[in-house]
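Assemble and predict.
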Amino acid sequence: MIDGRLLIAGQALQTETRFSAIDAASGEPFGVDFSVSTPEHVDAACAAARDAAPVFARDAAARADLLEAIGAEILALGDGLIETAMRETGLPRARLEGERMRTVNQLRLFAAELHGFGWQDEVFEPADLARVPPRPSLRRINRAVGPVAVFGASNFPLAFSVAGGDTAAALAAGCPVVVKGHSAHPGTGEYVARAVTKAVADSGFPTGVFSFLPGNNRALGAALVGHPAIKAVGFTGSRAGGLALIAQAQARPEPIPVYAEMSSINPVLLLPAAMAARGGALARAYAASLAMGAGQFCTNPGLLLAVDGPDLDAFLATAAAALDTAAPQVMLSPGICRAYHHGVSALDGREGVATILRQNAPEDRCGAAIFAVDAARFIADPALREEVFGVSGMVVRCASPDDFSAVLASLEGQLTASFHGDEADWPLAQALLPIMADKAGRVIANEWPTGVEVSRAMVHGGPFPATSDTRTTSVGTLAMARFLRPVCFQNMPFAID
Amino acid sequence: MIDGRLLIAGQALQTETRFSAIDAASGEPFGVDFSVSTPEHVDAACAAARDAAPVFARDAAARADLLEAIGAEILALGDGLIETAMRETGLPRARLEGERMRTVNQLRLFAAELHGFGWQDEVFEPADLARVPPRPSLRRINRAVGPVAVFGASNFPLAFSVAGGDTAAALAAGCPVVVKGHSAHPGTGEYVARAVTKAVADSGFPTGVFSFLPGNNRALGAALVGHPAIKAVGFTGSRAGGLALIAQAQARPEPIPVYAEMSSINPVLLLPAAMAARGGALARAYAASLAMGAGQFCTNPGLLLAVDGPDLDAFLATAAAALDTAAPQVMLSPGICRAYHHGVSALDGREGVATILRQNAPEDRCGAAIFAVDAARFIADPALREEVFGVSGMVVRCASPDDFSAVLASLEGQLTASFHGDEADWPLAQALLPIMADKAGRVIANEWPTGVEVSRAMVHGGPFPATSDTRTTSVGTLAMARFLRPVCFQNMPFAID
């Protein structure tokens, strides 16, 4: 079903330079070799996207059909997709099957959105010739920005990759998409790219609507972001990676936006009454949220705030015990696992940092870790606020609830901020709500941040460095707005549209 | 009424370093000396803005009242404002009185918008506990980004300055504003700043909602853009100035958006049937639009495209005669006038460029100029596409209508693109509409671009370098969206809001 080719506007091409997929569990290469795309391929894909853009932008109903068809083609890929993804990412079957359904439902949600008119945000103001000076008719409507480059994430090989949220949003908005395939799941990427390519071919739209460029070098991404036909970039990944793309996009003769989702430690406040009433249940739920998917979620609860004392000690003991019963997990790639061990080692023994748990784990597996500090130390040491991607939790022992806002104020922007509180905690939650909303794109009561609903109301975004543009989201229908721009038509004859 | 003080959160302060207003017509200093704000003043203003932000963001109805009150206070300033503005800018009384009304109506429009709910873009999705997994309640709503820095324009000392569009939009969105006063109209600025300060004091909002920092050096603007309390910047001015602010804002530890409106030559297509039927009337209207306000409009029709031949020759003769009958005009500042003479001199005699009109004018006045080139030369020479701020028009003689799209394709992003056409021209207009909409934020039929309606449907924006963010506008109610960000509240108890 897959043979390591890149896909440019419906054409499958092979290159001489190749790279291998890596089995996440063993660290060994396996399967077919994958073609490495070159700058010439970027040129061809972007030129095809530019040529396809005007036709693609015009027919929203046909785009809705295309999105539905992509979903159907992904489901039709069958178990080969799941097995390849399991091997490339180390993620378990149930998770990947769930992620596949999430990906398909995401495509369907955008299709449904296209059957409404809200995304166009159309405003018509009739002429008023009696006014002095006469007022012209004005019609404002959203319009596709043009071809979009998508850089998928390693941690969601389906839902945030080739046909993931960025691609679905861009296609829905009427923008052709050129995907830079992630080198950590090239086979998964090719499977899905073939599904999209087939759906585009069947749609009657120009084939340039979609291209898939796998590769394992940075020059490929740079060529893509630098191409004049590309008008916006969607990226999910590391802070360093996102910042490099943003700098390059800003330095173009025509700067373009990079919608980068980068780094978040997702603070969770455990309020006193809830801790007293149900600390044990919270501890078990925390452990489950922290360890889910080897902690490889952008909404992983990396930071806890609670008032120091016996309730917190009991909470930590329960959480540590729950985490320690689970076996160390396979991570997405050897590089991510190395970075995790490096991050945990840097915290273990750092001044003022107590190690609550550091699970014994081989160097190719992710063992759970919990660290604790007091509020003053946490605020004084920026290194304690850096994301450690994996099952690593930082706990701030606050002297009183008065410390909560100072700790929150020390944070950079976040995807989420959560609190767990019972009725007696609500005045405190109310007082903290403004700073939580200042710091995050989503504020959560009495739930853990690791579930992200795909819906109209979702905001998966937040101030820098959670994302590069706090006015947007990368999950939910509002994500289309990143790839639309308003245009006003003044005094237009009815015959012209 | 004015005494050269800066205004920080309701406090009028004097500094030792001072600068003078310059009489635009004579180039001589006049009136009181104005205080130069320092980085310490920036600190004080931004801290006050940060402290005022939460309260200010909460009460939209009171903000609407504030916007109305600012308008009333501006009207109450009386003729002192107009006379000062006339002297500082060289703009005539009727224009400034009209601009004052436009400014007041703009404030009223945002006030009216706040009485509706559209600007909040609220979406509520109820919980579904029966679903597996349960679906939480989600409420998405727009929220103020925080304090905004505003850099006003020299060419609209009222409508795009201290209480102009950016300030009105930011205040409407719930963001405190710190204005960097423009050194070309410090007295006008102080007048309006006093009106805003009085309205804020009467409103009961914290005084930190508004500060006015005059100055005549770049360090002031840099300190403002670099201040951590500032969350967004509104700027209208030169391309170099805008790019410098953007680079600085991107290099902050927390990068912030700069909404810069910079450079546009506003192509106008004269289609063949309209030229044949009413070339003379079009020529007179063109001359009026080009010369209005000494051409100092961001929507000035700096570029004409027409098919070469007798109709175009007659058009140019009529336009040149109309322009040449008017006296050379005072410009906004000696620096702007110098730049205009430099720009016109660089075009006069340039290879392939014919000078249709170069009005004889003293070096402190703006004489009208029209230049013509063929399409190939225009496309080959990027210098011919640069904005010359003033009464200077470039005309591209196209061999046939087939040249129109190639010429349009050679352009950078524009605020506007217009066509003049009669019924026989409509198929051509229809064919050119997509590229016009790709290149500009507003597409205009059979009108000139120099009128910009302040309304809900207006887009005063466009692709780079017309603006730095093609998804926005700096005129009309949609301008609020620049200073809002969506936040999602998940599973929130009813008691907490």
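Chain B has two domains: 6-262+467-490, 267-445.
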